[in-house]
TrEMBL record:
<dbReference type="InterPro" id="IPR058715">
    <property type="entry name" value="PDDEXK_nuclease-rel"/>
</dbReference>
<protein>
    <recommendedName>
        <fullName>Restriction endonuclease</fullName>
    </recommendedName>
</protein>
<dbReference type="Pfam" id="PF25941">
    <property type="entry name" value="PDDEXK_16"/>
</dbReference>
Length: 201
């Protein structure tokens, strides 16, 4: 893993895409605790997060704690919360429906916020990736990283939902389109750049 010594996480391989991970790990494979209910595409998003920060671009799932999706070590360490969603849901008629949504669990979000405020040597960021699906194969639309504090500023209207392992929890579902708008990022920029890095803005 890249040894980070700057105040911002170092993106080493911004050009690696979600479809590269799918090809490298032979599809949407799940592994480890929770694999029976996990999303293969979600697991690949975690592999992608590790790969873009890794010197060798290794497409692995690894972290230091069970509630952290990816980890960047160094003088300043980063906990990475990974979120992925489809570009557009498919309607009952087969046409494109509403924009895909990220689901953010409040308990995880609050824990990341605490981690960021606890020490100057450890902080937390979100890694968002959006993909389209054609014939069952996903293709990356765009990806973005942002400080947890910046994401916290755009979240509202938490609601209760039953989680398969955690029970009833507060959650916020927000479309990627609305999230970008609230973060001040245009969809054109999101789709055209390898990665949007809001940690240095």
């Amino acid at each position: 893993m890249t040894q980070n010594s700057s105040p911002n996480p170092t993106v080493v391989n911004p050009e690696i895409k979600l479809e590269d991970v799918r090809k490298d790990v032979d599809g949407n494979s799940c592994e480890g605790r929770g694999r029976s209910t996990a999303s293969g595409r979600g697991y690949n998003a975690e592999r992608l997060a590790n790969a873009i920060f890794h010197d060798l671009g290794l497409m692995i799932r690894w972290s230091v704690k069970s509630y952290v999706d990816a980890y960047i070590s160094g003088e300043i360490s980063y906990y990475v919360e990974v979120k992925s969603c489809v570009n557009r849901y498919q309607s009952k008629t087969g046409n494109l429906g509403r924009y895909g949504q990220f689901r953010i669990w409040k308990s995880h979000h609050d824990r990341l916020t605490v981690e960021s405020s606890y020490s100057d040597l450890k902080t937390a960021i979100y890694f968002f990736v959006v993909y389209s699906v054609t014939d069952g194969i996903e293709k990356e639309v765009g990806k973005l990283i942002a400080p947890v504090e910046m994401v916290d500023d755009v979240l509202d209207n938490w609601s209760s939902e039953d989680h398969v392992t955690m029970g009833e929890q507060k959650t916020r579902q927000i479309s990627w389109h609305l999230l970008l708008k609230r973060l001040g990022v245009s969809t054109d920029r999101f789709k055209s750049e390898h990665i949007i890095d809001l940690t240095d803005e």
